Amino acid sequence: MSSSESAAAPASVHAGSYLYYRHSLAVRVMHWINVIALTILFLSGLNIFSAHPALYWGKSSYTGKPPLFQIATRESDEDHVVGVTRILGHEFVTTEVLGAATDAEGDVVARTFPGWLTLPSDRWLSMARRWHFFFAWVFVINGLCYLAYSIASRHLARDLAPDASDWRSIGRSIVDHLRFKHPTGEAAKRYNVLQKLAYLSVIFVLLPLVILMGFAMSPWLDTLIPGWVDFFGGRQSARTIHFIVAWLLVAFVLIHVFEVIVSGFWNHLRSMITGRYRVNSELSK
Amino acid sequence: MKTRADLSRRHFLGRALGAAGALVLSGCDALSQTQWFPKLLATGEALNQAAQHLIAPRRAMAQEFSEADLSPSFRSNGTAMPDNPQYAALAAEGFAQYRLEVGGLVEKPVSLSLAELRALPSRTQITRHDCVEGWSAIGKWKGARLAALLETVRPKPAARYVMFYCADPMEPNGASPYYESIDMDDAYHPQTLLAYELNGAPLPIQNGAPVRLRVERQLGYKHAKYVMRIELVESFAKVAGGKGGYWEDQGYEWYAGI
pTM for this structure? Predict the structure, then answer.
């Protein structure tokens, strides 16, 4: 009896909650284009990296100093293959994760990253470059549209720029995040201060940096102002920064998805698809 | 408190996401194998060339470095010793019998000895070599300016590309000799050289002796080693795989500025 009543009740009065229009159509479309483009850029980027899985600091790879980071494969005495990872002179055996993995026939073979982490899944530099550069254009054009939209629609000024009360609440917001406590009711309609800072640093620091470091790796673009690449330590340093920022973006995505899960997965997912986010008005009292 | 239903839903969600991910990845692999999809992806490369030529002037110079930046030894990549008896015979005599043939769409075809090539206006430059794989090495190159050679042979107006045919076969049976092509803008660029010296010594065999192309501002595979013959052409569509170079025929971009 009671279950049939609640099922029939309109959503807006159910448990004192209502749907709030949170994300505009433009933001939703650009969000999902970005998900696809960044995923493909990351996976194809790891395939490209597999062609020379070492990172250096400096103008070239061969300066007399060893690489900062290297994934390698060693054939040991007993004719079996070992994957190793070297970081700042320390070597770790990483078979099955980095450097070597078991193939379909059950043999351990040289393999920088597991197949599920690269696009294409097999080592195929020329095809990975095609995927990477095509989706780099998708990503850059989408990003420029997002910037133009966010400025013109005041999304940036209204929703993302922290105000004075945000800065005052930063300590409490950190504690709340650590306790997985999330704003409810009316407060859930706004981005909290840590969320704003995370989005702003991705939009204005990490994403521009990863693009710029991609440009720095292009020998043709290096001619624009000869020597500009040295500002970032040189071409190989730029490649290293490109790689590190790519992983920082992965870290951002993991935290972002984690926060989405702990603060109401289906509610957030719906709001990024239909735009509508459920606000529980009673809980806020 | 999480109920069992919640936990099994999460479990299901995790598995569903994993399965969907695997499906999407194998879908992407299937797309890579089609004829049409890589062509669509290649539009990104056409955009790269158009955009890069738009923002960086065609005469822009590649960065040059100081002696302090030189790589201790210049890495050899690809062929280290061409598997070719004629080449081996030339190398055995220190390339004394080497002739560089220059022909095709030119008014005055020539055949140059190494000494005649060395007599052409030269340039010395310390530049960075960027391999498509991701590594870079810095070397000091000396060579004849390709522009000076072109002024000698006088290209016909129809000439649009300069082809470089090399001594190194890329397959074990001596088949698929390496070749490359560049456009006339790159050919006349002041840093484009037919290099015969590396780091102050005659070009070693592992780096392309006796003559290799330097086409700074593009990736390493454009810098053809062991150059034996140069031909000016209107189109390279009928040469080998038709894509303008050995690696281009394997799916790499003809424009290698990125």
Answer: 0.92
